[in-house]
Amino acid sequence: MIAAKCLLASISTTLLLGCSALSYQATSKHEPLKEQIVGTWKYVSVDNIRSDGSKVPLFGPEPQGRVAFDRNGNYVLMTSRAGQARFASGDRNRGTDEEYKAVVQGSIAHFGRYEVSEVDKTITFHIETSTFPNWNGIDQKRPFSITGDELKWVTPSASSGGSAEVRLKRAQ
What we know:
Elements: H1 2-28, H2 33-37, E1 39-49, E2 55-57, E3 64-69, E4 74-80, H3 97-105, E5 107-117, E6 122-130, E7 139-147, E8 150-155, E9 163-170
Antiparallel strand pairs: 1-2, 1-3, 1-9, 3-4, 4-5, 5-6, 6-7, 7-8, 8-9
């Protein structure tokens, strides 16, 4: 009888803890967007959206890089094409025109502060410095969504012209 009561108490405790964990998971999905975005994300795709709706990969089929958002409103973003060729000279200050062009067209980075609007589901990047100098000191508002471990946003005026759709997944 005592063994049965202990088993019943153990099962009850396990169920209670399991329900608490499920309850936590369910409520964590209702966290403010600013809390959901915090962390490090890695690229799944970065596509230029043509006027006909078709998509062209801007950084190849497997873009590399990370985007990190901290709780204090700071971010850093680095995107690169996978498999870029090394400089023949081995010196980044002695690249050829073609090597420099490949680096510029195959990467983008910027950092600064960010704000999230819960109302219109946008993130505004307050870009301090970018490898595309035309973005230095400007703000860019981008609509975004988070579904599970996927973050997606649209850059309305991408550095390559047109708009770009960025898909990331939470880094493990």
